[in-house]
Amino acid sequence: MTSNSANNRTDRLQYLTDRIEIQDVIARYGLGQDLHEDGDNDVLREWDAVFAPEGRADYSITGVPDLADIGYRELVDFMRRPGGSMSGLKRWQHFQAWSTVEISGDTATARTPHIHTHQGETDGQGWNLIQTGMFVDRLERRPEGWRIVHRTLEILWMDTFPVAA
Description:
By secondary structure, the protein is α+β, with helices and mostly antiparallel strands. It has one domain (about 5-160): Nuclear Transport Factor 2, Chain: A (Roll). The chain contains 3 helices and 7 strands.
């Protein structure tokens, strides 16, 4: 084995290791949402291992201008506080698919398809909401591992429908 092929193999192994770590970070976002229902709002248990301390998000596609550039902790508060965007929901689940990842040294970009399901109730009428889209993330390798420094939510489509009898 030549030195060049050994370096190539090492580079490929590092790339694969980085991809797995990045995929785990992205999956942990959905777990942060889904492991904490029924008044358990401790999303930060997972999200502190997802985002860099200064991590930001742009969820303005939802139609809320205040979500154009928000810290991830502020995002948790927006969603989970009493009267927050998720306070009227009974159940939900957040599925993230495999990401397309581009890595350059200690930085990476990832594009991740998602489907989010939500069940709520308004005036005694149950409803479901499905949202599909993409997360576009900028990540950095930190001493504690890969972390999202910026996340943009893209919505491809979403729809509501009544709960079946």
